Amino acid sequence: TPAEASLTLLTEAAGPRIEPTVYGHFVEHLGTGVYGGLWVGPQSRIPNTRGWRNDVLGALRRLKVPVIRWPGGCFADDYDWRDGIGAPSRRPVRLNKVWGNVPDDNRVGTHEFMDLAEQLGTEVYIAGNMGSMPPRAMAQWLEYMTSDSPSALANERRRNGRDKPWKVRYFGVGNESWGCGGHMRPEYAADLHRQYATFLRAPVVRVASGDGEGNERVTEVMMQMARDDMDAISLHHYTVPGPWEQKGLATGFDRQRWAKTLQEVTTGLEEHVAKTIAIMNRHDPAGRVALYVDEWGMWHDQEPGSNPGFLYQQNTLRDAMVGALTFNVFHRHTDRVKMANLAQMVNVLQALVLTDGPRMLLTPTYHLFDLYLPFQGATPLKLTLQSPRYTEGDISLPAVDVTAARAADGSTHLALVNLDPTRPASVRTGLQQAATGRVLTAPAMDSHNTFDRPGHVQPAPYAAHPGPQGLTLDLPPRSIVVVRLATP
Ligand code: AHR
């Protein structure tokens, strides 16, 4: 028998709109995240446009990619932007010391990345190097990209083939300053942030490096000492299904791990975000500084046989469930959460797309982003939900999670998640409207797509019609349902 839930949907907004950039992305020079996965070079036999794979870009276009963060991650604080400009054949080969110590021939640099962004019609979020380069290098990179003047840097850009300046809306001042970005104490990082941000004179959203380890002092000190020199602060939150040394594979887990993983989002991420916002509220009661969760996603053990430095992992229905619950958390915190970036786009961690030479597949996480498209720019709505519990061992969670939002065209959309892997749920709404959309579920908790079976997990059409008691939405076990309500 299905678990019974009851939902009351209100017409009042629950917060400011869900910025489209909450559905943002992250591409790092890491493994085959850039080289091979997105970039094959103009001479490749894999069909491409100026080096960028047509198949992958075609899939990404459908997701209306709002923003991409690049070039890292940890890589950003070991990156000299000058290595990636000028004639490709003359660019230096550097070792990617953070990720596998493999050579990076810098064939993808600023011009190529900006071309990718233009091909996808997306904003860019450039991550600058605060860890190992002087402030002048960071400031000069920004000038190189954005100046319309006759300055030497702007002219150098023109000589390198780009006349018009690019639009750089977001700029990260370092990354994980407490870790790979320099192992700094928060006080030192705050001072350094102020110094570097001072020289970023072009109009740009300055993003400070914030917490990523659940260390509240990082947010506290950064907000206290450097808030006037930032427009946003970052938060990193990875969902790790076990202890760091034994995260487990993306596939082949039991029900206990499933429950633990989902709990890590509904409780772990939710609390991390709420606590960070509470600190921000104390130091910035006017709400000027935004919170960017600019790295989130599942971090599993790498696939057997793959390079441990490449963070290549499979992606199952569980990853999509984590994504759905994550978006629902973000929908509840639109007062501060103005951007979020999945780690990462292709072949790295919780990827949207996996590639193998000329082949590619779309992961369940890709389908999740596709399902949630109507939420980009929509306004979250208030609701009350009475959910039955889902219990596994000592873990007890609400079985059903729901968010709702009104899109700019007036249509209302619901995102419903049934966390229970074995029991269906029925959500009574009392609404007198039909609901149509799609459902994402699969035969097993770890169902996933492979290159031989790329369509194994994909959304199916979903429809529900009001009965005598109004509209009831039936959710299969372990499912995500996104519907649009018919106009009453
Ligand atoms: O996304 C992989 C890595 O995780 C990033 O480079 C770093 O910022 C984080 O620790």
Automatic annotation (TrEMBL):
Keyword Ubl conjugation listed: no
Keywords: Carbohydrate metabolism, Glycosidase, Hydrolase, Signal
EC top class named in words: hydrolase
Pfam families the UniProt entry points to: Alpha-L-AF_C (PF06964), ASD1_dom (PF22848)
InterPro entries noted in UniProt: Alpha-L-AF_C, ASD1_cat, GH, Glyco_hydro_b
EC number from the UniProt entry: 3.2.1.55
The Alpha-L-arabinofuranosidase C-terminal domain, residue ranges: 294-479
Reaction(s) catalysed by this chain's protein: Hydrolysis of terminal non-reducing alpha-L-arabinofuranoside residues in alpha-L-arabinosides
Positions of transmembrane segments: none
Family: Belongs to the glycosyl hydrolase 51 family.
Record text on subunit structure and interactions: Homohexamer; trimer of dimers.
Protein known as: non-reducing end alpha-L-arabinofuranosidase
Organism expressing this protein natively: Ideonella margarita
Lineage: Bacteria, Pseudomonadati, Pseudomonadota, Betaproteobacteria, Burkholderiales
